[in-house]
Amino acid sequence: MLLAYLWEMSHPRLQASLRVLERFIPAECVDRRGKMAGAERRALSYLTAGLCAAAIACNTSPPPPPMPQAVATLAAQYDAPTATLDPATARTIFEQTAPLRPALGSFTGLTFLRETLEDATAVEFDHMDIANDVQGSIEAHTACPGWENDPTPDDATAGSIDVTMGVENSKVQRAFAGHATECRFLAGPQGGSSNVQATMTLEVDLGSDLGFGDPAPPILIRASNATIAVNDMSVDLLEQGLSFRLNTDGSVSTLIDPTTFGFGTAGTVLLTARTDGSWALRVRDGQWVCSEGSQPCVFGPA
Q: Other CB atoms closer than 10 Å to residue 178's CB: what's the count?
């Protein structure tokens, strides 16, 4: 049967009524589209869910979309950097990453994606008694925060992000795809003042499948076909991709290969823009914390 009803979603970040629309899922399955209005702060502009559960005897189950595999493989490399560095090499590598650091720092402004993910997965199915076997997809659209940090931005001026998440066994699949369109946000330590605008294709990995209502884990993003402007500087990465991870503490990391900077050091290093303005080079046996200037990097546990 078609489950059609007014769905009230209550969430710390939004309160809105979601209208059920009959679209493309067979009548035995669930299909919802909701329009967010009157949210007290930035929230999803709309949420569309095409979901089916064995408990309601779907004749045709909507399959989840294909998962991007490359970003899931990349996630394992982020979790376990392999290089080891001595103090002099750590400092030199940090200095050589100077052209990269402003771009990485700009992505600190994308930490709002954690809220977007939590809003999109704050769906409760227990009252429908189908919590154990839901599959299908969730499409989420959200306005970017803009350069004024408006709590209710308009995607016509601030840009937007769209993602389509697969759902299987009542969990959001770990990897999914999306797109950022002229997405405007502020970036830099402690909120910063850099104006950033980005258009890019996104592949996202959560590290593992995510249960509905679970807090967002670190979010790894592989971006391609990217055009990124930071203040008056613009970079086009149409062929090559870049990747970065939005960590739970607000910091942002990217994986680097020291050999690309002319070093013979084998392995990988995780470069992190920390929220206090310092930088960390995570290696196999710990991490080096570095700051601008001539002071040596300090080694400690990761």
A: 20
> How does pLDDT run across 92-145, given as a tens digit for each residue?
999 998 888 887 888 888 888 888 888 777 765 444 444 457 778 888 888 999
Q: Is 141 helix (H, G, I), strand (E, B) or coil?
A: strand
3-state secondary structure of 118: helix
Answer yes or no: is pLDDT of 36 > 70. Answer: no
Strand-pair category, 210-211 with 44-53: unpaired
Residue 272 vs residues 162, 247, 283, 301: alpha-carbon distances, Å: 26, 9, 11, 14
Q: Between these two residues, 302 and 38, which has the higher pLDDT value? A: 302
> What pLDDT score was predicted for residue 61?
57
Q: Which residue has the tokens 């949420």?
A: 47
Q: From 285, 200, 207, 210, select the one nearest 237 (Cα to Cα).
A: 200
279 sits in the region (left: phi over 0; alpha: psi -120 to 50; else beta) called: beta
Say if residues 163 and 189 touch (Cβ distance below 8 Å).
no
